[in-house]
């Protein structure tokens, strides 16, 4: 996780979970549905939170403390630890209560893959958002490359335990008779019990020749994450680029040609693609600008290389591009994830402030 800072009246904390991978860059100078909403309990913070765009793109959150958390990759234990450390989650392991008051929490992508509690984390963050909004705060999620990969059907990095979670979750959904919101928000509260009750053979069910179990796991995951599937539509609620109080949040990084193309346009195209279930529609085409290529929003590592890996030339180049990008969008700074930082969160001041 990397942060590129600017003088800011708000306290801005950058915290990552299992694999620290967040970066910040700065230059010199709802209801659960998308769309606009305002949080009422906001007088002490300086006004209500105003969200524009569907999915959310621009957020005005006067006087709020902003916390960013990086790649969580299916590790619920470390997710909880990071959120407790940030002061936005109760420390009790058997409850999931928002303690952040009017704080704004932004998760910058890659909740999926590598761990076995992905849906539980998605459920947790959505539940916390409902609670936060009642107190004048908010929780936002930004889609990363692993979210787009799974909607594509690319399951290369899925942990076997997460295939199991998909099977359990589908069985659990049957109890709610189509009440998606209730079932999804409650999953984090019951997922551990379902895991303990789920029958697993002593040597594990994911042996190379266990084709029946593998097919069941792949089918369950595909039905949830395919375009138009319930979890793909849940991810479609979230942007790939988010502006909060003139701070940009994205997974890989924002570049000048992304801004020229249009941030709202990028968010809308990715959302439409995730929700689309009609194979004859143009929306089945993957939005290249956001999700494909070394310089796409979710894949670029221009800003998130570890400082020891940077040459002077690459440092100068990223500084110039960051300045151009943030100037063109009128932002104070940028927070990104995507690339592991073995020594913790990077905080770079790319330009002096006069």
TrEMBL record:
InterPro entries: Calcineurin-like_PHP, Metallo-depent_PP-like. Residues 65-214 form the Calcineurin-like phosphoesterase domain. This is Calcineurin-like phosphoesterase domain-containing protein. SUPFAM superfamilies: Metallo-dependent phosphatases. GO terms for molecular function: hydrolase activity.
């Amino acid at each position: 996780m990397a942060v590129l800072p600017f003088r800011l009246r708000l306290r801005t904390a950058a915290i990552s979970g299992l694999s620290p991978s967040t970066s910040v860059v700065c230059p010199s100078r709802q209801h659960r549905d998308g769309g606009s909403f305002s949080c009422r309990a906001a007088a002490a913070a300086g006004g209500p939170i105003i969200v524009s765009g569907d999915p959310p793109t621009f957020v005005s959150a006067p006087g709020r403390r902003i916390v960013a958390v990086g790649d969580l990759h299916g590790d619920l234990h470390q997710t909880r630890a990071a959120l407790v450390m940030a002061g936005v989650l109760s420390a009790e392991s058997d409850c999931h209560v928002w303690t952040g008051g009017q704080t704004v929490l932004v998760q910058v992508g890659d909740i999926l893959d590598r761990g076995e509690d992905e849906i539980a984390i998605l459920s947790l963050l959505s539940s916390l958002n409902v609670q936060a909004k009642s107190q004048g705060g908010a929780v936002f999620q930004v889609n990363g490359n692993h979210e787009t990969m799974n909607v594509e059907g690319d399951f290369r990095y899925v942990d076997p335990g997460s295939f199991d979670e998909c099977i359990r979750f589908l069985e659990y959904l049957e109890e709610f008779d189509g009440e998606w919101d209730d079932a999804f928000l409650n999953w984090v509260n019951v997922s551990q019990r379902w895991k303990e009750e789920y029958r697993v053979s002593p040597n594990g069910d994911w042996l190379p020749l266990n084709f029946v179990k593998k097919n069941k796991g792949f089918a369950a995951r595909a039905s949830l994450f395919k375009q138009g599937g319930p979890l793909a539509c849940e991810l479609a609620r979230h942007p790939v680029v988010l502006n909060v109080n003139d701070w940009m949040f994205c997974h890989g990084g924002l570049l000048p040609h992304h801004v020229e193309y249009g941030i709202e346009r990028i968010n809308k195209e990715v959302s439409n693609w995730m929700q689309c279930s009609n194979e004859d529609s143009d929306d089945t085409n993957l939005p290249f600008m956001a999700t494909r290529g070394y310089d796409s929003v979710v894949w670029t590592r221009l800003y998130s290389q570890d400082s020891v890996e940077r040459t002077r030339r690459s440092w100068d180049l990223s500084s110039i591009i960051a300045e151009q990008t943030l100037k063109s969008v009128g932002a104070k700074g940028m927070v990104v994830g995507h690339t592991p930082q073995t020594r913790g969160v990077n905080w770079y001041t790319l330009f002096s402030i006069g």
